[in-house]
Amino acid sequence: MTEIQPIFDGRAFIDGQRVGAREGQTYAKHSPVDGRLLGDVARCGAADIDAAVAAARAAFADGRWARQAPAARKRVLVRLAELLLQHADELALLETLDMGKPIRYARSVDVASAANCVRWYGEAIDKVYDEIAPTPRTALALITREPLGVVGAIVPWNYPLLMACWKVAPALAAGNSVVLKPSEKSPYSALRLAELALQAGLPPGVLNVVPGFGPEAGSALALHMDVDGIAFTGSTRVGKQIHVMAGQSNLKRAWTELGGKSPNLVFADCPDLERAVQAAVGSVMFNQGESCNAPSRLFVEASIKDAFVERALALLPRYQPADPRQPSTVMGAIVDRIQLDTVLRYIEQGQAEGARLLAGGQAVQPVPGGYYVQPTVFDGVRNDMTIAREEIFGPVLSIIPFTDAAEAVRQANDSIYGLQAAVWTRDLNKAHAVARALRAGTVHVNQYDEDDITVPFGGFRQSGIGRDKSLHALDKYTELKTTWIRLDAPDGL
Question: Considering 184, 216, 257, 290, which one is annotated as catalytic?
């Protein structure tokens, strides 16, 4: 168990300073690991959002960041990435104690990927070129990217630091100022990020972090008349509200990465059944199932279903929840009591609707006072059951048999979501045909969860609008401007 003792400072970060909420309100933040009080966090509201937006607007207007050369912005972001790695143990423990994920993954996945994201956008921004349009010789048309201005970012609790960096890094790289609202369930790493950014050389006011609850701080940010764009990751229900508030206010740009109920299609000609089983179970259980892209609907061709289920159940002992502070733990705590109760209600509903509970389904307490649930597997699931329709955000796998590719694709696409999907087959033609037919932002073939910052992340339908990661993310944080210059060439030229 690590001996690092992070500082749980829950004050907001506005204009380069730690400050309390203007109305003096706080809320108690407890750890899902063992229920301990981590500290009091500023319960910010509209007045705090106003202050943060004003600081961000002033920073943008005077150009202290936006007018710096891309190479200069790069140097600051690369330095920030280095600082994230230097403080990796501290940040990882903040994540683990704040929202319950295993320390081994908090460090090797969350912090490492966050640092890589910040570095990648820093390195990329001075390599993005503008355009010259193919106009007649009598005109020169320049097509340039300009920063939006003030960007509001609202991020979830399941990957607090990483999701913050997915928004903040491209927004800052493009020259924007940012007001970041972390989830009230996991605020600490975002607040530490702002301190490290200032240390890296980011000017005060360019990155502000305002903790608080969605209906108070989040709504105020989405409705603010001086915010030019809002980037959100979270539930589809709240994402819809974000779009409404963007329209109700100043028609700010709104980009939302939302929920998922990703289908995982395993055909009888799967080239490596053991690998498919490990991916199917591991990807659902990773991060306690609190992942929007978790392949929670497992479609298995009927002829291999029994063998697949047998192997899947044999893997479950390695995913039994344990103290996430221990380096050997692979599944930690559910983020809080509310979410634990939600997961348990879905498990009860699955049984009530006729699905067969093969394993798990119970709350456990490997650490007294914490919130844990067993890895859970259902068989006999129909695609119209609640557990196959709604996002559970817990370690619950639903197995659905199919007999042919057309049936599998039809059921896979029968969802309001379209975030990710997977197909397992040794038939290249089938792989291409099924991947093309699946309505999802990412389709994995003979793997799941392999990833890179260079590829976009986002979904179809009610899984959201826009993309995180890759150069495509810059589209969210920039406006295209055309500058048309009339040319009157001298005679003879």
Answer: 257
Residue closest to 355 by CA, chosen among 308, 392, 399 = 399
Mention every residue, 6+ apart, whose C-beta is less than 8 A from residue 441.
Answer: 418, 419, 420, 456, 457, 458, 459, 460, 463, 467
Contacts of 176 (CB under 8 A, 6+ apart): 60, 66, 147, 148, 149, 150, 151, 228, 229, 477
Please report, as a single letter, which amino acid is at residue 264. N
The model's pTM is 0.96
**Is residue 292 flagged as an active site residue?**
yes
- In the chain, % of residues over pLDDT 90: 97
Round to whole Å and give the CA distance between 407 and 392: 24
Whole-number pLDDT of residue 6: 85
Assess contact for 333 and 288: CB atoms under 8 A. yes
Catalytic residue among 270, 290, 292, 391: 292
Q: Judge whether 165 counts as a catalytic residue.
A: no
E-assigned strands of 171-310?
177-181, 207-209, 229-233, 253-257, 263-266, 297-301
Q: Residue 279: is its pLDDT beyond 90?
A: yes
